[in-house]
Specification:
The chain is an alpha+beta fold. It contains four helices and 21 strands. The chain has two domains: about 100 residues; about 150 residues, Immunoglobulin-like, CATH 2.60.40.
Length: about 300
């Protein structure tokens, strides 16, 4: 069985030839299913030959599972039919198929074979676009972090000698209501209100973390912290034990804070432990706060401006 156009068995890709043209426009060309019906012997012989002789596909495809589909048949005269076949790798392939033709006579004998083009994997445009967007976004984030455009904002989390201290922005309100047990063990609602004229209650939620020392002992009282306002005026914490009083139970008070925790008295903070609570101050209405200073067991300054 002659094969006048068989390529040598070489380790390189098959390249497209000048045969890669629109064969469907040729005279005597019959497409698809009609070709199978008109030339059953030739089509079957061509498909069988392609499946049994995959060496022409080159080293990258000769051991791959392939799928073949008849594109059409062109009558070449003298009883010879040229069967055009498209082929693709069958394992999750996305892209354009390869193509070839096989010349077969009316008895089913293969006379010639030529590769026209090889399969080409489709470029994953969406995936590439998403990757590019992700890389650009990451670069922008890194630039922002490096340039620190938020440098003018408050640094609420600072380190002392042994403690890490976070002091949230001061929250001012006419009074505060919270729940806590009394000395008798019953849970009551308590309130703290201003004592001066033209003043209001200011609450600073504070978190103390011991990350370096074996144990830190501290007493949280009126000397434990300072809240400073413009003009270098230093406010001392309110004695929440002395200033708290029982109020009538209500669930509708807008100033009822179910998460309010008294931070007052003596504490020992072991390494790795965290203490979270609220420090209460009384300040003139409309005060602008510059910083919060922690002085118990360590020293640190959280600046608001």
């Amino acid at each position: 069985m002659a094969n006048t156009d068989r390529p040598e068995d070489r380790d390189e890709e098959i390249t497209a030839t000048d045969e890669s043209v629109d064969v469907s426009a040729r005279e005597n060309f019959i497409e698809g299913d009609e070709a199978r019906e008109s030339f059953p012997t030739e089509v079957e012989a061509a498909l069988r030959y392609a499946e049994e002789n995959k060496y022409d596909y080159g080293p990258k495809l000769r051991d791959t599972d392939l799928q073949w589909e008849v594109n059409g048949v062109e009558s070449m005269g003298e009883g010879i039919s040229r069967v055009f076949i498209d082929y693709t790798p069958s394992a999750s392939f996305r892209g354009s198929s390869g193509s070839e033709y096989i010349d077969v006579d009316s008895s089913g004998a293969v006379l010639a074979r030529r590769q026209i083009s090889v399969p080409k994997q489709a470029v994953p445009v969406v995936l590439i676009a998403l990757t590019v967007i992700s890389l650009v976004s990451l670069a922008v984030v890194e630039v922002l972090l490096w340039a620190n455009p938020f440098e003018g904002g408050p640094d609420l989390y600072v380190a002392g000698r042994t403690l890490w201290i976070r002091a949230e922005l001061p929250n001012h309100q006419p009074y505060v209501v919270y729940e806590a047990p009394s000395s008798a063990g019953t849970v009551n609602q308590w309130a703290i209100k201003p004592e001066g004229q033209g003043t209001e209650i200011v609450i600073v939620e504070t978190v103390l973390t011991n990350q370096t020392s074996g144990a830190v002992r501290m007493v949280i009282d009126r000397e434990a912290a300072e809240l400073r306002i413009k003009g270098s005026i230093a406010l001392k914490p309110v004695n929440v034990i002395d200033r708290s009083y029982v109020v009538e139970t209500t669930t509708n008070d807008r100033y009822l804070n179910p998460d309010f925790r008294l931070m007052w008295g003596g504490f020992t903070l072991n390494q790795g432990e965290e203490l979270r609570g609220h420090i209460v101050f009384e300040a003139p209405i409309g005060s602008e706060f510059t910083d919060f200073r922690w002085l118990a067991g360590d020293t640190a300054v959280v600046r608001y401006q």
